[in-house]
Structure formats: C-alpha cells, structure tokens
Amino acid sequence: MRLRHKPWALDYMKEQSSIYIADPSTLKGNWSNEFKNDNPIYIEVGSGKGAFITGMAIQYPDVNFVAIELFESVAVAIVQKLVEEPLANVRVLTVDAKDLRDFFEKGEVARVYLNFSDPWPKSRHAKRRLTYKTFLSTYEDILPDKGQIHFKTDNRKLFESSLMTMSAYGMTFDWMSLDLHANEPENNVRTEYEARFSALGQPIYRMEATYDN
C-alpha cells in the first residue's frame, strides 16, 4: 500500500503535547511521571491508525499504552482519534523500533504487541522483520524478566519464521492459534488490517511468547 505523505502531520502532532511525545528520550526511566501513575505500560510496535491501541486503552483503563509508529503520516491518525475521543492512558511516538532502548529502561515496559507487521518476505530482508533476533534483543532489554510478546498476523510465512526466530532465541510459547477468529476470544481487539483480512476469509495467526530469562 502506498503511503500518502501528509506534510502537516508533524506540526499538528506537536501541538497535541498531551498525546504526542516529540522527544521520548527525555522520559526514559520516568514514564510513570508522564502518565501520573504506576500502572503497567504496554507498547504496540507498528500501531498503524490506532484501532488496536485505542480499543485496548478503553478495555483496560488501568494499563498505560504507548503507540510506536515510524511514519508520521500514519501516526497522525492516532493523534486525531485521541483529540476527538481523549484517552488519558495513551501516548504516541514516531520512532524506529530499533531505538527503543533509548526511550525505555529495563523493565519499564510490561508487554510488547506486534500486530500485522510488514512481513519483508524476501530472505535478504529478514533482518528488517520485527521478530528478527536483533529486535527480540531490543524488546528483551526494555521488558522485565519473563517479559512477553503478543503477536498477530495474517501472513503464515511470517508467523512460521517468527516461531523459528523466537524459539532459537530461547523463548517459550504460552498460547497459540492458527485461526484466531474461528473461536475468537471475547477480549480480542481487532486492528484495521485484522478486520479487513478476516472479512476476506483469511485466517489470523496469534501467539504469546515469553522470554526464558
């Protein structure tokens, strides 16, 4: 899908300083001050237009959520949602996932969500997948011991490669589904892509993986 550039997006987001964090490095180790509570922090890496993270924030008001979206022209849709329907437990960042150590201390993030990440199907691009070992190492450094990744995708090859990389990294799998919507949990929050792919009859793959440390 071609990304439509929105040159006004960054200026608009900066005006919403209670939602958009322009320089998250200033909050490393101090996110509880930003949210004004000690509730656990869950991050979603690759938040798209925010259907999942805003849905989760409504469902779990006692959890703080941080949306991580690389592209400003996409992230602005999340900020617009939160301007129209404010949620005090959501913040938005436009940063690269490889730099997460610069923004969070060890154990400051309680859980990582990866939803419908770019599959990067060519072998030469494997290092770009958000479940590649270098990214797994980054998440491990901001999660507590025995931290978890929750992962959803419609792409079977990405799911299989992620199982292999996580297993090779020493992670264990606590829960798995090869067709999530065949018996969809009541608390499942769908992403925009998830709703679209499910409507086309494509199975949704989901797993919960834990670091064995």
Automatic annotation (TrEMBL):
> What are the record keywords, sorted?
Methyltransferase, S-adenosyl-L-methionine, Transferase, tRNA processing
InterPro entries according to UniProt? SAM-dependent_MTases_sf, tRNA_(Gua-N-7)_MeTrfase_Trmb, tRNA_methyltr_TrmB_bact
Ligand binding (substrate): 122, 154, 191-194
Organism's domain of life? Answer: Bacteria
Pathway(s) per entry: tRNA modification; N(7)-methylguanine-tRNA biosynthesis
Catalytic activity reported:
guanosine(46) in tRNA + S-adenosyl-L-methionine = N(7)-methylguanosine(46) in tRNA + S-adenosyl-L-homocysteine
Tell me which residues bind S-adenosyl-L-methionine.
44, 69, 96, 118
Q: What is its EC number?
A: 2.1.1.33
Give the NCBIfam families listed for this entry. PRK00121.2-2, tRNA (guanosine(46)-N7)-methyltransferase TrmB
Q: Which family does it belong to?
A: Belongs to the class I-like SAM-binding methyltransferase superfamily. TrmB family.
Q: What does this protein do?
A: Catalyzes the formation of N(7)-methylguanine at position 46 (m7G46) in tRNA.
**Per its record, how is this protein called by name?**
tRNA (guanine-N(7)-)-methyltransferase
